[in-house]
Every structure is written in C-alpha cells, then in structure tokens.
TrEMBL record:
Superkingdom as given in the UniProt entry: Eukaryota
Protein name as catalogued: RXLT1 xylosyltransferase
Pfam families, A to Z: RXYLT1_C, RXYLT1_N
Record keywords, A-Z: Transferase
Record-annotated RXYLT1 C-terminal domain positions: 201-390
Alphabetized GO MF terms: ribitol beta-1,4-xylosyltransferase activity
Matching PANTHER family: RIBITOL-5-PHOSPHATE XYLOSYLTRANSFERASE 1 (PTHR15576:SF1)
Positions of region (Disordered): 1-21
Length: 395
C-alpha cells in the first residue's frame, strides 16, 4: 500500500485498477481525439498569442481558477486583500486577480482581453456588478481593451434580465457570457451554461483523491447536513429518514436556519460526513443545483439528486430540453436522480447489499468523471475565448 503522502506526491500514481483500464483508455482516446482536433484548429494561429486577464469579483472565480484551471494564487492566505496567479493554456496566457483591493481604476490592466467574474444573485450584488461592467465599457470605448467575456453567478430563479443589454448581440460590448443554472437563453454560441461548483466563499478546498478515500469502507450509507426550510421537500426527506430508522445508518444533521458562515467545527463535520458516506443526499433548495453536488464529487460520495424544477424562470433553452441540471446531464454525470424522496428507502436497501468492491469501483468512476468534467470545462472555456477573441482568417 501507499501512504496518502506518497500517493499524492507521485504524479505517476494511478488509483484506477486494471479492470478500469479499458474504460480509462476509451475516455483517454476521446480526450486525445478532442485535443488533436483543437490543435488542428489552432495550427493556423501558431503565431498568435492571446493574453487574458481574469478579474475575480465573485467567489465562483475561485472555482474557475483553482478547481477548473488548477491554478495557484499568491499569497495563499484566503483573507489577503490582493491575490494573483497566472498560467499558460493553449495559445493563451491567463492572469487572475482577486481580493477586496481589486477596485476599478486602482490596478493595472495588463491584457487587451478581459474575463470579468461577477455575482448577479440579488439586487445589491447586481448593483456592484454593474459598476464593474461600466468600468469595462469605459476601457473598451477608450480602446484600452478589445474584448470582454463575463462569468456570472446567476440568480437562483434565473432572473438575469439586467445582463442582457450588455451583450454584444443586444448592442452591448460583452462578447461571451458563461452563466450558472439552467438559464433559458443558453445557446452555446455566445451564452454558455457554467457549473455552480463548490462553495469557495466558505473556502471549500481543492481535494486530491487519496488511496484511503477510494478504498476504505465508509461508516455511513448516506448524509444530509443542511437547512430544512419550512414546507420544503427537505421536511419530507427528514421524515422518511426518521420513519424507517434510516437515520441510524445515515449522518443526518438538520438545522432550521441557513448559516452563511461555517464555524471551523461545522465545516470539518460537513467534510467528514462527505468522506464517511457512500451517498450524499441533495434535496432541492431555491434551485436544484447546489454546491453540495460538486462537494460530494470531490470526496467520492455519490450525489442522490432530487431532479425537479424549482419555481422561477429557469428551464429549457433552445439548446437543451433536459432541465434541470442540463449541463451535468449532458456531460453524463453518473449520479442517482430521483423525483421523490419516497424512492430513498429502496435506494438505501440496495446500498446495504453492495460489496466494498462495488463501492470502490463506483467511487473511482465518480472521481474520474469529476476530474474529466473539470478538464472539459477548462478546455471548452479556453476554446470559446480563443475562437471568439483571436482574429479569424476569413479575410
């Protein structure tokens, strides 16, 4: 066996066993075919190098940079006023800036192409995001920058009408929009769905899979640590779990009030619950998509997702008809989707009968899928920027 440290320190180490090799080889082939295609498309741009500066003014910027790009930030201290990082990817040199000290007009704009990461979840955030957009617009008008893309933490009911006038297609200056949740305007041309990711605002870490995470037996069949809203399906979930005595097999900790700030202890509890459970229950909140889904993937705990549309304007776009969670479904997420928590006892009955070996295989598959998912999102993001920002050779 490996110690965790050896496993992590050795780049060559591969937790995927021989019986998974063929599946891995197939996915590797698909990945390489895709890379070839991308390289081919790029060959006529050999001389062009793109410099992109990302301004992280919302916590999802950290998911983009640290989790999807695997990038680092200096200083490492999460409370620092100013943090930055850079990396080269494809033909593009990316630099990333974040922190309270990154304020319009008080930092140097060092690239002609800018990605602005904003929070549009509620009116005060929208007001702040709008200030940044106006700043970017001024830089465009004075020709300090050439292109702007926006990564937006959208509103949970997909009420994002405020961003529309800023898009190029509507006479504005924003070339590309990457937006969370099942926004009906997603068209895969200039508006793309973006994953919500983990709760970086609570400093959820980048988790490296370890030997023990994959191979050790876990103490609980399932977990749910979270707020139980009045008259929500979460009340039904808690009732069902208690009724069948399943709360003895699962780690259930319900609270009545949502708490934005974790204590060190509550956060450690939550991470332990993910690490110690085979399944993570993901009941809908205000939106079906929640941080918990991605956080469970990070620890190899399979999400059991309540697959129902939440009230609001989220829904089917012209591109997809599989809302909610169309991005995850399109990418073949190996989750358990249910329509009603009454299905849970049967799922847990099955779970009791699974051997450790079966669970190990499933964890490998989940961790491998999540790693690939982040790699695809990174590649898609880079390709989309390069295709949009680099001069085409159409004449």
């Amino acid at each position: 066996g490996f110690t965790d440290h050896d496993a992590l320190g050795n780049e060559e180490w591969n937790p995927w066993d021989a019986d998974e090799k063929s599946e891995l080889a197939a996915s590797q082939q698909r990945y390489e075919a895709n890379l070839k295609m991308i390289k081919h498309a790029r060959s006529h741009l050999e001389q062009t190098s793109l410099r992109v500066q990302i301004w992280g003014k919302a916590a999802i910027g950290l998911y983009l940079w640290q989790h999807i790009f695997g990038g680092h930030l200096e200083p490492a201290d999460v409370t620092a006023q100013w943090r930055e990082g850079s990396q080269k990817a494809g033909k593009t040199y990316f630099s990333f800036l974040t922190g309270p000290s990154v304020v319009p007009g008080y930092f140097s704009v060092e690239a002609e192409h800018v990605v602005l990461v904003l929070n549009g979840r509620e009116p005060p955030k929208v007001a702040y995001a709008t200030q940044w957009l106006h700043y970017a617009q001024t830089l465009m008008e004075t020709r300090k920058i050439q292109h702007v893309a926006v990564v937006l933490l959208g509103n949970e009911q997909c009420n994002n009408a405020w961003i529309q006038p800023y898009l190029k297609r509507n006479g504005g200056f924003v070339s590309l929009l990457f937006i969370t949740y099942d926004y009906a305007f997603v068209n895969e041309e200039d508006i793309f769905q973006w994953p919500l990711g983990v709760a970086t605002y609570r400093n959820f870490p980048v988790v490296e899979p370890s030997w023990s995470m994959i191979h050790d037996p876990r103490s609980y069949l399932c977990n749910f640590l979270g707020t139980v809203y009045k008259n929500s399906s979460r009340e039904i979930l808690i009732e069902i779990v208690k009724q069948d005595g399943l709360d003895k097999l699962c780690w259930i900790a319900a609270r009545e009030q949502w708490q934005p700030q974790e204590t060190k202890e509550s956060f450690k509890n939550y991470q332990d619950a993910l690490l110690q459970s085979d399944l993570t229950l993901c009941p809908v909140g205000i939106n079906t998509e929640c941080y918990r889904i991605y956080e469970a993937c990070s620890y190899g705990s399979l999400p059991v997702i309540e697959d129902v549309m939440t009230p609001g304007d989220c829904g089917n776009s012209s591109m997809y008809h599989s809302a909610p969670l169309q991005l995850l479904k399109t990418m073949g997420a190996p989750f358990i989707f249910i329509k009603n928590w009454k299905e849970l006892p049967a799922i847990l009955e099955k779970e009791k009968k699974k051997s450790l070996q079966e669970k190990i295989q499933r964890r490998k598959k989940l961790l491998e899928w999540y790693r690939n998912f982040k790699a695809w999102m990174r590649q898609k993001f880079i390709n989309t920027l390069e295709n949009s920002f680099l001069p085409s050779d159409k004449g």
